[in-house]
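Case study.
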Amino acid sequence: MKVVKTVPELNRLLAPLRADDKSIGLVPTMGSLHEGHLSLVAAARADNDIVVMSVFVNPTQFAPDEDFEAYPRDLEQDIQLAAEAGVDVIFAPLTDEVYPPGFSTFIEVAGAETAGLCAASRPGHFRGVTTVVAILLDLVRPTRAYFGQKDAQQLAVIRRMAIDLALPAEIVGCPIVRDPDGLALSSRNAYLSATERAAALVLYRSLQAAREAIESGQHSRDKIIALVERLIAAEPLAEVQYVEARDAAGLVAPPTLTGETLIAAAARFGTARLIDNIIVEIKET
Ligand code: AMP
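After joint prediction, the assembly is written out as follows.
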Protein backbone atom coordinates (compact mmCIF):
# COMPACT_ATOMS: atom_id res chain seq x y z
CA MET A 1 0.00 0.00 0.00
CA LYS A 2 1.23 3.49 -0.89
CA VAL A 3 0.58 6.55 1.25
CA VAL A 4 0.62 9.85 -0.68
CA LYS A 5 0.12 13.35 0.63
CA THR A 6 0.24 15.54 -2.44
CA VAL A 7 -1.73 15.80 -5.68
CA PRO A 8 1.35 15.37 -7.94
CA GLU A 9 2.28 12.16 -6.07
CA LEU A 10 -1.30 10.93 -6.42
CA ASN A 11 -1.29 11.67 -10.15
CA ARG A 12 2.07 9.93 -10.66
CA LEU A 13 0.63 6.84 -9.03
CA LEU A 14 -2.78 6.84 -10.73
CA ALA A 15 -1.81 7.94 -14.28
CA PRO A 16 -0.38 4.56 -15.37
CA LEU A 17 -3.33 2.74 -13.79
CA ARG A 18 -5.79 4.93 -15.68
CA ALA A 19 -3.81 4.42 -18.90
CA ASP A 20 -4.13 0.67 -18.27
CA ASP A 21 -7.91 1.07 -17.94
CA LYS A 22 -7.89 -0.17 -14.35
CA SER A 23 -11.12 0.45 -12.45
CA ILE A 24 -10.62 2.59 -9.34
CA GLY A 25 -12.83 2.55 -6.24
CA LEU A 26 -12.61 5.61 -3.97
CA VAL A 27 -13.49 5.45 -0.28
CA PRO A 28 -13.55 8.99 1.18
CA THR A 29 -13.08 9.11 4.97
CA MET A 30 -12.05 11.43 7.76
CA GLY A 31 -9.87 8.67 9.22
CA SER A 32 -10.14 7.20 12.72
CA LEU A 33 -11.10 4.04 10.87
CA HIS A 34 -13.51 1.41 12.18
CA GLU A 35 -15.35 -1.58 10.71
CA GLY A 36 -17.88 0.77 9.08
CA HIS A 37 -15.15 2.34 6.95
CA LEU A 38 -13.60 -1.06 6.30
CA SER A 39 -16.94 -2.39 4.98
CA LEU A 40 -16.75 0.32 2.30
CA VAL A 41 -13.23 -0.86 1.48
CA ALA A 42 -14.50 -4.46 1.17
CA ALA A 43 -17.22 -3.32 -1.24
CA ALA A 44 -14.71 -1.27 -3.25
CA ARG A 45 -12.27 -4.18 -3.27
CA ALA A 46 -14.94 -6.51 -4.66
CA ASP A 47 -15.90 -4.17 -7.53
CA ASN A 48 -12.60 -2.55 -8.61
CA ASP A 49 -8.99 -3.28 -9.59
CA ILE A 50 -7.61 -0.54 -7.33
CA VAL A 51 -8.89 0.90 -4.04
CA VAL A 52 -7.98 4.47 -3.07
CA MET A 53 -8.93 5.74 0.37
CA SER A 54 -8.79 9.41 1.24
CA VAL A 55 -8.14 10.36 4.86
CA PHE A 56 -8.90 14.04 5.34
CA VAL A 57 -10.67 15.79 8.21
CA ASN A 58 -12.41 18.35 6.04
CA PRO A 59 -12.47 21.77 7.75
CA THR A 60 -15.22 23.22 5.54
CA GLN A 61 -17.85 20.79 6.82
CA PHE A 62 -17.37 21.81 10.47
CA ALA A 63 -18.97 24.95 11.91
CA PRO A 64 -16.66 27.10 14.11
CA ASP A 65 -18.34 25.73 17.28
CA GLU A 66 -18.02 22.08 16.21
CA ASP A 67 -15.42 19.40 16.92
CA PHE A 68 -12.91 19.97 14.07
CA GLU A 69 -9.99 20.34 16.51
CA ALA A 70 -11.09 17.52 18.80
CA TYR A 71 -11.99 15.11 15.98
CA PRO A 72 -10.00 11.88 16.58
CA ARG A 73 -6.95 11.53 14.30
CA ASP A 74 -4.57 8.56 14.16
CA LEU A 75 -3.00 8.24 10.70
CA GLU A 76 -0.52 5.53 11.74
CA GLN A 77 -3.34 3.25 12.92
CA ASP A 78 -5.45 4.13 9.87
CA ILE A 79 -2.55 3.14 7.60
CA GLN A 80 -2.28 -0.22 9.33
CA LEU A 81 -6.04 -0.95 9.22
CA ALA A 82 -6.34 0.19 5.61
CA ALA A 83 -3.39 -1.97 4.53
CA GLU A 84 -4.90 -5.02 6.24
CA ALA A 85 -8.25 -4.33 4.54
CA GLY A 86 -6.64 -4.26 1.08
CA VAL A 87 -6.46 -0.53 0.31
CA ASP A 88 -3.90 0.13 -2.44
CA VAL A 89 -3.43 3.88 -2.02
CA ILE A 90 -4.09 6.20 0.91
CA PHE A 91 -4.40 9.86 -0.04
CA ALA A 92 -3.89 11.85 3.17
CA PRO A 93 -3.47 15.46 2.03
CA LEU A 94 -2.76 18.56 4.06
CA THR A 95 -5.49 21.22 3.91
CA ASP A 96 -3.59 23.38 1.34
CA GLU A 97 -3.43 20.47 -1.05
CA VAL A 98 -7.25 20.23 -1.18
CA TYR A 99 -7.97 23.95 -0.76
CA PRO A 100 -5.28 25.98 -2.54
CA PRO A 101 -4.56 29.48 -1.18
CA GLY A 102 -7.39 31.82 -2.17
CA PHE A 103 -9.87 28.96 -2.47
CA SER A 104 -13.35 30.39 -3.04
CA THR A 105 -15.46 27.92 -5.04
CA PHE A 106 -18.19 25.90 -3.34
CA ILE A 107 -20.77 23.39 -4.50
CA GLU A 108 -24.18 23.50 -2.92
CA VAL A 109 -27.15 21.16 -3.39
CA ALA A 110 -30.30 23.20 -2.84
CA GLY A 111 -33.15 20.64 -2.98
CA ALA A 112 -35.11 18.65 -0.39
CA GLU A 113 -31.88 16.72 0.26
CA THR A 114 -30.42 19.66 2.17
CA ALA A 115 -33.65 20.81 3.85
CA GLY A 116 -33.86 19.86 7.51
CA LEU A 117 -32.36 16.84 9.27
CA CYS A 118 -28.63 17.48 9.83
CA ALA A 119 -28.74 20.62 7.66
CA ALA A 120 -30.97 22.36 10.22
CA SER A 121 -28.53 22.01 13.12
CA ARG A 122 -25.35 22.11 10.96
CA PRO A 123 -25.71 25.04 8.56
CA GLY A 124 -23.03 24.94 5.86
CA HIS A 125 -22.18 21.32 6.64
CA PHE A 126 -23.37 19.81 3.37
CA ARG A 127 -21.86 22.64 1.34
CA GLY A 128 -18.53 21.58 2.84
CA VAL A 129 -19.24 17.90 2.16
CA THR A 130 -20.28 18.34 -1.48
CA THR A 131 -17.36 20.66 -2.13
CA VAL A 132 -14.74 18.28 -0.73
CA VAL A 133 -16.32 15.21 -2.36
CA ALA A 134 -16.41 16.97 -5.73
CA ILE A 135 -12.72 17.88 -5.33
CA LEU A 136 -11.77 14.33 -4.29
CA LEU A 137 -13.73 12.86 -7.22
CA ASP A 138 -11.92 15.24 -9.53
CA LEU A 139 -8.48 14.44 -8.10
CA VAL A 140 -8.90 10.66 -8.03
CA ARG A 141 -11.32 10.27 -10.98
CA PRO A 142 -12.62 6.93 -9.66
CA THR A 143 -14.87 4.49 -11.51
CA ARG A 144 -16.96 4.20 -8.34
CA ALA A 145 -17.09 6.02 -4.99
CA TYR A 146 -18.37 4.39 -1.80
CA PHE A 147 -20.41 6.04 0.97
CA GLY A 148 -22.14 4.65 4.06
CA GLN A 149 -25.90 4.63 4.57
CA LYS A 150 -24.96 5.63 8.14
CA ASP A 151 -24.83 9.20 6.79
CA ALA A 152 -28.07 8.78 4.83
CA GLN A 153 -28.58 12.47 4.14
CA GLN A 154 -24.97 12.86 2.99
CA LEU A 155 -25.46 9.94 0.59
CA ALA A 156 -28.68 11.47 -0.80
CA VAL A 157 -26.96 14.86 -1.21
CA ILE A 158 -23.96 13.31 -2.99
CA ARG A 159 -26.21 11.27 -5.29
CA ARG A 160 -28.06 14.50 -6.19
CA MET A 161 -24.80 16.33 -6.90
CA ALA A 162 -23.50 13.43 -9.02
CA ILE A 163 -26.66 13.44 -11.16
CA ASP A 164 -26.88 17.22 -11.47
CA LEU A 165 -23.22 17.70 -12.40
CA ALA A 166 -23.13 14.54 -14.56
CA LEU A 167 -20.16 13.28 -12.56
CA PRO A 168 -18.75 10.17 -14.17
CA ALA A 169 -18.22 8.12 -10.98
CA GLU A 170 -20.89 5.66 -9.92
CA ILE A 171 -22.00 6.49 -6.37
CA VAL A 172 -22.37 3.30 -4.31
CA GLY A 173 -24.21 3.25 -0.96
CA CYS A 174 -23.24 0.62 1.64
CA PRO A 175 -25.25 -0.67 4.65
CA ILE A 176 -24.70 0.56 8.22
CA VAL A 177 -22.27 -1.49 10.31
CA ARG A 178 -23.34 -1.78 13.96
CA ASP A 179 -21.91 -3.17 17.16
CA PRO A 180 -23.68 -6.38 18.22
CA ASP A 181 -25.93 -4.39 20.60
CA GLY A 182 -27.12 -2.17 17.74
CA LEU A 183 -25.04 1.00 18.18
CA ALA A 184 -24.00 2.26 14.74
CA LEU A 185 -20.20 2.46 14.50
CA SER A 186 -18.94 6.03 14.39
CA SER A 187 -15.60 7.72 14.99
CA ARG A 188 -17.51 9.99 17.40
CA ASN A 189 -18.42 7.01 19.62
CA ALA A 190 -14.92 7.58 21.05
CA TYR A 191 -16.35 10.64 22.87
CA LEU A 192 -18.84 8.49 24.86
CA SER A 193 -18.38 7.44 28.49
CA ALA A 194 -19.59 3.93 29.37
CA THR A 195 -22.90 5.29 30.68
CA GLU A 196 -23.39 7.54 27.65
CA ARG A 197 -22.67 4.61 25.35
CA ALA A 198 -25.34 2.53 27.11
CA ALA A 199 -27.76 5.46 26.83
CA ALA A 200 -26.97 5.88 23.12
CA LEU A 201 -28.54 2.49 22.39
CA VAL A 202 -31.87 4.32 22.67
CA LEU A 203 -31.31 5.68 19.13
CA TYR A 204 -31.44 2.33 17.35
CA ARG A 205 -34.08 0.94 19.71
CA SER A 206 -36.38 3.89 19.00
CA LEU A 207 -35.89 3.48 15.26
CA GLN A 208 -36.75 -0.20 15.60
CA ALA A 209 -39.92 0.80 17.46
CA ALA A 210 -40.80 3.03 14.51
CA ARG A 211 -40.33 0.10 12.17
CA GLU A 212 -42.68 -2.01 14.32
CA ALA A 213 -45.29 0.77 14.41
CA ILE A 214 -45.08 1.13 10.62
CA GLU A 215 -45.39 -2.60 10.15
CA SER A 216 -48.47 -2.53 12.41
CA GLY A 217 -50.06 -0.02 10.04
CA GLN A 218 -49.01 3.41 11.37
CA HIS A 219 -48.09 5.37 8.23
CA SER A 220 -48.62 8.92 9.49
CA ARG A 221 -45.33 10.80 9.23
CA ASP A 222 -46.17 13.04 12.20
CA LYS A 223 -47.10 10.11 14.44
CA ILE A 224 -43.96 8.15 13.59
CA ILE A 225 -41.79 11.20 14.29
CA ALA A 226 -43.60 11.86 17.58
CA LEU A 227 -43.16 8.23 18.66
CA VAL A 228 -39.40 8.22 18.05
CA GLU A 229 -38.97 11.67 19.67
CA ARG A 230 -40.81 10.51 22.78
CA LEU A 231 -38.77 7.31 23.07
CA ILE A 232 -35.42 9.08 22.71
CA ALA A 233 -36.45 11.91 25.05
CA ALA A 234 -37.33 9.30 27.71
CA GLU A 235 -33.60 8.58 28.03
CA PRO A 236 -32.29 11.16 30.52
CA LEU A 237 -28.80 11.35 28.95
CA ALA A 238 -30.18 11.98 25.46
CA GLU A 239 -30.82 15.42 24.04
CA VAL A 240 -32.85 14.97 20.84
CA GLN A 241 -31.74 17.11 17.90
CA TYR A 242 -34.16 15.87 15.30
CA VAL A 243 -36.29 12.94 14.24
CA GLU A 244 -37.38 12.75 10.62
CA ALA A 245 -39.30 10.46 8.30
CA ARG A 246 -38.69 11.07 4.59
CA ASP A 247 -38.82 9.37 1.24
CA ALA A 248 -35.47 7.55 1.21
CA ALA A 249 -34.35 8.57 -2.29
CA GLY A 250 -35.15 12.27 -2.65
CA LEU A 251 -35.78 13.06 1.05
CA VAL A 252 -39.17 14.68 0.38
CA ALA A 253 -41.60 14.61 3.32
CA PRO A 254 -45.04 13.22 2.48
CA PRO A 255 -47.76 13.38 5.20
CA THR A 256 -48.46 9.68 4.67
CA LEU A 257 -45.38 7.54 4.39
CA THR A 258 -45.10 5.20 1.44
CA GLY A 259 -42.42 3.24 -0.43
CA GLU A 260 -38.78 3.23 0.72
CA THR A 261 -38.88 5.41 3.82
CA LEU A 262 -35.93 6.78 5.78
CA ILE A 263 -36.44 7.19 9.52
CA ALA A 264 -33.52 9.22 10.86
CA ALA A 265 -32.58 10.70 14.21
CA ALA A 266 -29.81 12.76 15.78
CA ALA A 267 -29.19 13.24 19.47
CA ARG A 268 -26.47 14.41 21.81
CA PHE A 269 -25.07 12.16 24.53
CA GLY A 270 -22.63 14.27 26.53
CA THR A 271 -20.31 15.91 23.99
CA ALA A 272 -21.07 13.35 21.27
CA ARG A 273 -23.61 14.18 18.59
CA LEU A 274 -24.72 10.85 17.12
CA ILE A 275 -26.91 10.08 14.12
CA ASP A 276 -28.64 6.88 13.10
CA ASN A 277 -31.30 5.75 10.65
CA ILE A 278 -33.19 2.83 9.21
CA ILE A 279 -34.99 2.32 5.91
CA VAL A 280 -38.43 0.76 5.99
CA GLU A 281 -40.24 -0.44 2.87
CA ILE A 282 -43.89 0.63 3.16
CA LYS A 283 -46.20 -1.14 0.73
CA GLU A 284 -49.17 0.77 -0.74
CA THR A 285 -52.30 -0.14 1.23
P1 AMP B 1 -16.42 9.55 8.10
O1 AMP B 1 -15.00 9.16 8.28
O2 AMP B 1 -17.21 9.55 9.36
O3 AMP B 1 -16.58 10.80 7.26
O4 AMP B 1 -17.07 8.40 7.24
C1 AMP B 1 -16.51 8.01 5.99
C2 AMP B 1 -17.49 7.10 5.31
O5 AMP B 1 -17.73 5.95 6.12
C3 AMP B 1 -18.85 7.76 5.07
O6 AMP B 1 -19.33 7.40 3.78
C4 AMP B 1 -19.70 7.16 6.16
O7 AMP B 1 -21.08 7.10 5.84
C5 AMP B 1 -19.11 5.76 6.26
N1 AMP B 1 -19.44 5.19 7.57
C6 AMP B 1 -19.21 5.74 8.79
N2 AMP B 1 -19.71 4.94 9.76
C7 AMP B 1 -20.27 3.88 9.13
C8 AMP B 1 -20.97 2.72 9.58
N3 AMP B 1 -21.19 2.48 10.89
N4 AMP B 1 -21.42 1.84 8.65
C9 AMP B 1 -21.21 2.07 7.33
N5 AMP B 1 -20.56 3.14 6.84
C10 AMP B 1 -20.10 4.04 7.72
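Observations recorded in class. DSSP finds nine helices and nine strands in the chain. Residues 29-30, 36-37, 39-40, 147-148, 150-151, 174, 176-177, 184-187 surround adenosine monophosphate (CB under 6 Å). We will return to this complex in the next lecture.
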